């Protein structure tokens, strides 16, 4: 991984060995920024994942932190097709106005190899995302890039830390942490 060390419970960020995103990512980030929806995307973390079906690789349904990480999560799915499962717990009203039982809605999103997916808005903040074991049919390699939240941008409480993180990340001189 390439990014700062973070204690999300204590809301602490440490640079501890973080020297930037890797040089090999520079062209990909520039290419991402050519898309109108990512023109201002400035990642400060690159998380590389390597899933193997024989190891039962998976990632449980979760929401990414929103204290440090910003509005968009960008993932490049590189080696094989897979399925990203989005889930949302919701409850509704019955015809008589009483509440019905809570149910979980699941949406399977096909991710072809070499695709880019951006989670933002409700998909980022309300819908959990997962990769189920049964959906890892072949080795899957992906990189997820995260940007800073408003708190770490100019005008935010931690703007100074954010500026340092951006300067370091976008130097593209990183070695794995």
From TrEMBL:
Q: Which cofactor does it need?
A: Fe(2+)
One annotated GO molecular function: demethylase activity
**Keywords for the protein's UniProt record, in alphabetical order:** Dioxygenase, Oxidoreductase
What are the record's GO terms for cellular component?
contractile ring; midbody
Q: Does the keyword DNA-binding apply?
A: no
Record-linked Gene3D superfamilies:
Alpha-ketoglutarate-dependent dioxygenase AlkB-like
Q: Which GO terms describe its biological process?
A: actomyosin structure organization; demethylation
| Listed name of the protein | Alpha-ketoglutarate-dependent dioxygenase alkB homolog 4
